[in-house]
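Memo to structure team: turn this sequence into structure tokens by end of day. - J.P.
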Amino acid sequence: MFSNKHPVFSRRRVLKLEMLDCIRDFPKDIVNIHINGYANGILTGCRLSVNDDYIIISPGIICFDEDIYILKENYTVPYTHTNETSVLKVKFIGENSNQDFVSYITEVLIDNDTNIHKDEIELCRFKLKAGAKLRNNYTDFEDMTTEYNTINIINSQFAAYENSTISPYVLKYFAKEAFKYKLSNPLDISFCMQCLQDEKAINKELIIIYISSRLDQEYEDYSNERIYKFLIEILQDIKYNRVEKSDSNYLSRKIILD
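Reply from structure team:
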């Protein structure tokens, strides 16, 4: 049955092992229930910024094999130019224990191996020219995958139920750009509103359903990269419809003299 049990601390009471166990287990039980069935990826936070020769990872939480890994403060990673694609990864080392604690540790690294192995999660990738600096400010939605000198977060994994999904920051950027135009399709409006609600990851199935319905595509388990390309196609369609509508209004207002 449902219950809520917590220890009572007061003077002249004996501190029992059971009371300490309750304090230890309660937060872990909540987390385990919350992430039950979640795929690997970022749960929240872990936003990326650039400062001089460093990539900065903001505080956040990652879910891996239904355990959570917490970054409590900004973490800086130095980068260099290689003219090759480099990937910023979190590598999960495994268990490290002593008499007092059991820890599950990770390593943050920049790797030229673009394959993401079973014990790794991608945060971003980039290709840097000699003498250039990285950037993470984009001019528009398509600029997010500019080949050189740009932090690319399209392939970063975010935790969601059953399947990892695309970054909510990518979807929010898509929605903001789409709303610059007069949206008339209820499907576009509904999806974009969902993208703007918060910074939680959106279930991958919902994204694929939107894409397949909007573009009349067969339902498939698209990769993040394919999802992004389809979203570009949808955005181009939204822009085209706006221009076409504007032109037709202009023609309807013309006065023809015979």
